[in-house]
Amino acid sequence: MxxxxxxxxSRRALDPERALTALAVLFxxxxxxxxALAHDAGVRAVTLVFALLTPIPLxxxxxxxxxxxxxxxxxxLLDAVLGGRLLNASQVAVFLCVVGIFLVGxxxxxxxxxxxGVAAVGLLTATSVLEGVSGDVVSGIAWVTIxxxxxxxxxxxxxxxxxxxxxxxxxxxxxxxxxxxxxxAAAVLGERTRxxxxxxxxxxxxxxxxxxxxxAAKRTVPADPERARAAIAAVEDTGREALGELxxxxxxxxxxxxxxxxxxxxxxxxxxxxxxxxxxxGLPVELEVAGxxxxxxxxxxxxxxxxxxxxxxxxxxxxxxxxxxVRVDYEPEAVELVVSDDGGGVEGPIRDGRGLVNLRxxxxxxxxxxxxxxxxxxxxxxxxxxxVGEAGA
Length: 393
What we know:
Layout: H1 2-13, H2 16-35, H3 41-53, H4 65-81, H5 86-89, H6 92-107, H7 110-130, H8 137-220, H9 225-250, H10 257-261, H11 271-280, E1 285-290, H12 298-319, E2 324-330, E3 334-341, H13 354-365, E4 369-374, E5 380-387
Parallel strand pairs: 1-2
Antiparallel strand pairs: 2-3, 3-5, 4-5
C-alpha cells in the first residue's frame, strides 16, 4: 500500500505540465530578480512587468508548444517596443526561449518546428535590435540561429525520434508476446485435440473389439470351449495392445520425443495384425494390397492405420456385415485406402458421427480426400486418399 502511494506521488511529481508550471515560476522569480537591478526607473518598471508575464505561456507548452513559443517571443518583442530591456537585462530570458524551442522539437510536427524556428530567429533578432544590443546584425542572427534555436530544436527532435523508436519497440515486444501466447494456446488446443483423437481411437476401437470378443466367448463356452478360449485369448491380446497404446499416449505428457520415437507407432506395416484381430471377433476380413509399398511420412503412416482401424470398428459395431474388405493401394504420390462391407447399416442419409468427424480431420490434416458412400444393393464403402509426397509431408 505504501509503495503504491509512493509510486503515484512520483508520477504526479513527474507530470510534464506540473514540471513546466514549476519551471515557469522559477523563471519568473529569476527574471524579476535580474530586472530589479535595472538603473532606469522607467525601463525597470516595464521590464519587471514582462519578467512576470513572459514565463506564463511556458505552463501550456506541453499541450501547445508552438503557440507557447510564439507567445513568449511576442512578449519579448512587445517588451522591447514599450522600452523594456528584458532580453538584454536577464540571462534567464534566453533559457526561456531555449526551453520553448526544445519543446517544439520534442512535441510538434516538422512543419511547426520550421515555423517556430523561423519565427524565433526573426522575433529575437528584432527584439535585440529594438533593445539596442551592440554588434553586427548578421553575427547576431547567426548566434540566435545556432544557440537559442538550432541546438535546442535538434535536441528535441533527437529525443522525439528516440521516444518514437522506444514506443515502436515496445509495441513490437507486446505484439510478439501476444503472438507467442496465441501460438501457445493454439499448440495446447492442437495437442488436446490430438490426444482426444488418439484416446478415442485406442479406447473406442480396442475396447469395442474386446467387448465383441468377450460376448462371443460367453456365447460359445458351452458348445465350443476351444473357440471360447481363442476369443478370450484375443481379448487378452487386444487388451495388452490397447494398454500399450495408452501408455505410449500418456507418455507424451512425461517423456521426451527421443524416447517416444522408440515406442511402436501405428503403421500400415501392422495392418495385417489389425485384420487378424478383427477376424478373431468373428468378422471375416480380407486384406488386399496393390502396388509396391512406398515410404510414408510418420504422420501419414499413422493416420492411414487409424483410418482403417476406425472403419473396421464401425463395420463391426454398426453395419451388421458378414464380410469386409480392406484394400491398400500404393501409388507413387499417394496411398489409397478402401474399406467396404456388405452390411445394411442404418438407413437414410449418411451422418457424420464422431468417428467420421475424426477421420475427416485426420485426412484433411495431411491434405487428403475422404469419401463415404453406400454400395448397391447393400453395404458401405469408405475411401480415403492421402498424399505421400511434399503435399502430405
